[in-house]
């Protein structure tokens, strides 16, 4: 039971970082970004390149990778998403195209082999009678801190107030002089940075290869459907539910069945409650 609690919490923290960024950009800009999983992959690959090829220390490499992915997210928003924002289908298609281009670029650059992203903590720790990798515990702690910091930023800063205003009523916010395009770029940067951070933290104990973007976007989409599109508290709750559900299925049945959980949860929620648990238009 303790092992399920610990590993479920780690999975939930990774899923929450992915889903919070995904639902944040929807809650503010009203777009579904299918390139979100690519930010996760770029965070892991960026850290790999900086540490393995450029021989940078791990912490500066991770911070630089997060900054690079955040900047890339701004480029994606300004160059690809912004011209298509009035068309939901257009945004879906262009962000999917971005994701596929990034996947092929990673294939051409690194090949299809798995890559090893270095861990911040190599030691194992014993909690009760359970041995847990230090990197997993670090991912749990950093995930909690990152999401908490984002909430404090949104709630207690002027820029966060502007993000809230845009999420609640973009027209009224525009009349108040809030630059919506700038806010959209900032939110995309925050979303991309969270996804990159998740990739960097999960990379040492999960698979790092060019197609790694697909599973995170499936998980993120399932979580925001269950929690409610645009609701960050809903995404956090749904991430906890999905993380623990997959862990329980993995331990009691088989790990090969865990991927069905997110798909089943999405289908069930769309049938029973299409708006999700906390579905609403605002980001918070």
Please summarize what this structure is.
The chain is mainly α.
Structure explained in plain terms:
The structure is a single chain. With 284 residues, the protein is an all-alpha fold. The protein has one domain (2-211). It is 73% helix and 3% strand. The chain has 11 helices and 2 strands, in the order ααααββααααααα. The protein has helices spanning 2-29, 36-53, 58-81, 88-110, 134-156, 158-168, 170-175, 180-202, 214-227, 232-252, 258-272, and strands at 124-127, 130-133. It has a two-stranded antiparallel ribbon. Helix 5 (134-156) packs across helix 6. The longest helix is centred in the first third of the chain and has 28 residues, at 2-29. The radius of gyration is 18 Å and the shape is globular. The two termini are 33 Å apart. The model has no long low-confidence stretch (mean pLDDT 88).
């Amino acid at each position: 039971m303790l092992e399920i609690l610990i590993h479920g919490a780690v999975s939930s923290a990774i899923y929450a970082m992915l889903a919070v960024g995904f639902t944040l950009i929807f809650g503010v800009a009203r777009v579904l970004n299918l390139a979100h999983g690519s930010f996760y992959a770029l965070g892991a690959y960026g850290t790999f390149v900086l540490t393995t090829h450029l021989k940078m220390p791990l912490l500066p490499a991770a911070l630089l990778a997060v900054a690079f992915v955040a900047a890339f997210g701004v480029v994606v928003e300004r160059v690809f998403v912004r011209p298509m924002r009035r068309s939901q289908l257009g945004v879906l298609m262009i962000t999917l195209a971005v994701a596929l281009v990034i996947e092929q670029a990673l294939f051409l650059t690194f090949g299809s082999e798995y890559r090893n992203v270095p861990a911040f903590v190599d030691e194992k720790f014993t909690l009760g009678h359970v041995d847990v990798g230090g990197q997993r515990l670090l991912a749990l702690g950093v995930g909690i801190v990152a999401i908490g910091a984002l909430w404090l930023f949104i709630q207690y800063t002027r820029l966060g107030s502007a993000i809230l205003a845009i999420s609640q009523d973009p027209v009224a916010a525009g009349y108040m002089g809030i630059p919506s395009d700038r806010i959209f770029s900032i939110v995309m940067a925050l979303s991309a940075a969270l996804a990159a951070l998740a990739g960097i933290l999960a990379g040492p104990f999960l698979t790092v290869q060019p197609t790694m973007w697909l599973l995170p976007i499936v998980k993120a989409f399932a979580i925001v459907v269950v929690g409610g599109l645009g609701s960050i508290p809903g995404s956090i709750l749904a991430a906890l539910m999905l993380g623990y559900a997959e862990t329980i299925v993995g331990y009691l049945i088989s790990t090969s069945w865990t991927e069905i959980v997110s798909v089943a949860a999405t289908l069930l929620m769309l049938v029973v409650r299409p708006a999700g648990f906390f579905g609403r238009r605002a980001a918070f």
